[in-house]
Amino acid sequence: MTAHPEDPSTPDERSLRLLLVDDQPLLRVGFRMVLESEEGIEVVGEAGDGAEAVRLTRELAPDVVLMDVRMPRMDGIEATRLIAAAQSPARVIILTTFDLDEYAFAGLQAGASAFLLKDVAPADLVQAVRLVASGDAVVSPRVTQRLLETYVRAVAGGAKPHEVQPDPLLQDLTPRELEVLRAICEGLSNAEIAGRLYLSEATVKSHVRRILSKLHLRDRVQAVVYGYETGLVVPSNPDY
Q1: Single pTM value for the model
Q2: Residue 155 DSSP symbol
């Protein structure tokens, strides 16, 4: 596949570039039809396995990668991990068949910015792609709870979240930034955080940017994962 030439325009002035990754050609055709029917979205390439996805991400510089999980040669989790490790600006959306798929959380841990069900409604698919590309994706409270439960089950050695050692980097956050981070971990949008903390949305955005910078995180969805991994988020389930 031939790489597109470097586009000198800014992201706001050009089409959103998308890479489709799935080992089933018919699914790729379906996603392509939905996405290319939308103004401002261009599918720049397709891959049938994780190894090809890593190569094409490097060559085509997409803004978003729609990544299947189960594929031959290299699965989507390892491909996502390699893309993130290469510090690619591309944001990955993991595609899963079941909403309780154990691989969904593993994908977010590997560096993905979101996950979607393969039978997602077309309008929701387009909205998710645009949100993730903007870096302003929000994990809904329902998904947040599911991710937390997945994490609790997967904690190494059966350790409970409150036993997890907090990251020293949290000490670099101000009390207000900690409040904002906890609100992010609840799945709140910037507008909802602003309403809760009596701040302007612009101030919340500034807090979010500083939090991500201080904690070396890619986006707010990674901040949610970080909150679970460091014990900042404690499950409400009394068993824990």
Answers
A1: 0.75
A2: S
